[in-house]
Structures are given as C-alpha cells and as structure tokens.
Amino acid sequence: MTHHRHRLDKFRRVLTEQPVDTFLVSEPWNRAYLSGFWADDPQLTESSGVLLITAEEQVLATDFRYQEQAEKEAMGFRIVIYKETLTSVLPEIFASLRTRNLGVESHHLTHDRFVRVEEALKRWRPEGALVPTLNIVEGLRMIKEPEEIEAMRTSLALTESVFQAVAGEAAVGKTEKELAWRIEQLMRERGAESVSFPPIVASGPNAALPHAVPTERPLQEGETVIFDLGARAGHYCSDMTRTLILGEPDARVRTIYAIVREAQLRAVASVRAGLSSQDVDRVARDYIASAGFGENFGHGLGHGVGLAVHEKPGFGKTNSMVLEENMVVTIEPGVYLPGWGGVRLENMVRVTGDGCEVLNNNDSFYSF
Q1: 317 — phi, psi (to 5°)?
Q2: What's the average model confidence in pLDDT over 183-193?
C-alpha cells in the first residue's frame, strides 16, 4: 500500500501540470501501478475497471465480478460497483468528484469508449470536456523503484534458467515449435505467472525475421537459432535473446556473431544517466554499419521493460529520450540476412549515474 500511495502522490504532482481536475486511468498496467488492482483485461474492448483520480480523492469503478478483489487490493480507493455498464455510473461519480475537465489516456481509449465517457460527463456537466493526454503514467513507470527492480531480477533469473534448460535440449531435428512450447512449459513449471510474450525460436532462414513465429521447421547443423523469451513473475516482465549455433559455425556465422556481440558490448558500455537513448542506439548502429551490415539492422536497439514487456524509453534512429537512473532497458542489436538467417543478442540493464548494471547472470556468449 505504501508504494501505491507514493505513486499517487507523484501522479498528482504531474496532474497539476495538466488542464484537468479529474483523470480517468483505463490502461490496465497503469491502473495496477497506481492502485494495486491486478485484474486482467482480456482485450482492448473489455475492461475490469477504471480509476478516477483528483487532487483529493481516488475511485476505482469496476463490476460485481471484481468486487472482492478490488476491495482487497485497491486499498485507499473508494470502490464503486456497477451492475450494468461503466458509463451508467460515471455521471454519479463525476458529480461526487465535481468533475469539470476530465483527462483521459488517448493512446488507450477507443473512439467508441471516448464518446461514451464524454456523453456521461456531459450528462453531469454539459460544459464539461474530455482532455486527451499521452503517456502520463507511463512517464512515471519509466523510473523503477527498488521492489520493481527486484521483481525483474527474479523474473530474469527464471527466464535464464529456462533458456539454459532448453538450450541443452536443442538439437538437430527438433522443431522450432517443439522448443517454443518447451519454453512455455518450463516457465510455468518454474513459477512464472505467464510468459511475457510468445517465445521466439527462429532457425536458419527464419532467423532473418526479427519477430519470427515458430514453425514446424526442424533445426539443422551449422545454422543460427535465435531464442527470444521472457517470463512474467511478481507481475514484472523479463526479456532476453540468445543465438545458438548447432554444430561447427562457418566463417560467415562467426563474423556476424562477433559483430553483433561487439555492438552490444559497446552500447552497454555507453549507457549512463544523462545520455539520450538515440545516442546509445547510434553506438551500436554505427559499429554494425562500419562492419558493412548497416542495412541489416533495421529495428531499434532496445526498449524499457517493467509491468509491460515493451515500455518507455525506446531506442532508435529517431526515438530520443534522456536516460535516467533506475530505468531498466534492453540492449539487443541484431543483423538479419534474408534467405540466410540472423543473429540477435539481448541483455537487460539498469541505468546508473555513471553507467549501467547488467541484470543478466547468463553469460552464454560465443567468443569468435
């Protein structure tokens, strides 16, 4: 409860900079971050509830299915249970909060729901207005608290143990789907709440696809196999990538692997608070380009990790954000050659004042 109260205090300080008197939180991870209410939203058009926050009050509106959970988890919130729809109770809530200008998360609210919320506000106050905002809570989530970092250490350690087990089982003839399912199975058996994303196992030419979907393709001798996996444990995500080579690697594999590994090491060495994410991306990108593979590294260098597996800040050629202490980000350069395959290597790091801390303990990299 203490950290949620602290987060609400931080959120309210940010809220004073917005032209609103009430804020509606609909994004599920933002809702959980501020309230401790961990109900799941199966898809964008479904909702287990919303938060309504003012300078003095905080309300969680949800339906009867979540009443007991809400009362247990959202300590300090006034719980409003609706029997029909959320918008049917919103005018009453707006009246109790004296809402005039309502901030909403425009990056999450569908147009249909935006219209319905707006209609509900105007039933209470005809001159009321919805104010679209962008990434306000996400901005707070970028800086991780000690318990969040510890949760990610636990999640990452679990992920690494699963990778070690599956890497030991990887062999010529095993299919990508077999190994991907084995990852999911072991994640659950070793205590994960779920995988943080569907695992990627991509072999041979499929490894040229950064977001490959596992297929029935059997692994073959001498090719690269990209494993990208992560667990959710204690509500927090992890994300790591390793590239295995079955059998003896040829000169091309050795060269490309060594380039990607060096790019990763250089980028990690450059990370520190005060530097922009774009500058870190450039370190890896320029090195890969200098080796002749600049056109084969098309995605950003990394991303933040936390309650969601992809959070701010982002790393890219046009994505620039100043890094701050206790951000947790991935560093994952890659080289992808259509028709041949690819190599990607990914670690998670915590930004510090004078550098970064690599959170991975797994050091299963080849030295070519």
Answers
A1: -65, -30
A2: 98
Question: By the 8 A CB rule, do 233 and 147 touch?
Answer: no
What backbone torsions phi and psi does residue 191 show, to the nearest 5 degrees?
Answer: 110, 5
Whole-number Å distance between alpha carbons of 191 and 48: 25
The C-alpha atoms of residue 318 and residue 334 are separated, in whole angstroms, by: 18
Give the HSE-up count for residue 366: Cα atoms under 13 Å, Cβ half-sphere. Answer: 21
Distance CA 129, CA 20 (A): 9
CA distance 30 to 304: 15
59 and 52 Cβ atoms separated by less than 8 Å:
yes
293 vs 340: CA distance, rounded Å: 14
What is the band of 2 on the pLDDT scale with cuts at 50, 70, 90? low
DSSP H or E stretch at residue 129: strand 129-133
In angstroms, how far is CA 155 from the centroid of its own chain?
Answer: 13
Q: Encode burial over 102-122: b for 16+ CB neighbours within 10 A, e otherwise.
A: bbbbeebbeeebeebbbebbe
Q: What is the pLDDT of residue 5?
A: 87
Q: Which domains does the chain have, with CATH numbers?
A: 2-141 (3.40.350.10), 146-358 (3.90.230.10)
| Burial class for 235, CB neighbours closer than 10 Å (0-12, 13-18, 19+) | middle
What would the two tokens of residue 291 be?
């080796």
pTM attached to this predicted model: 0.94
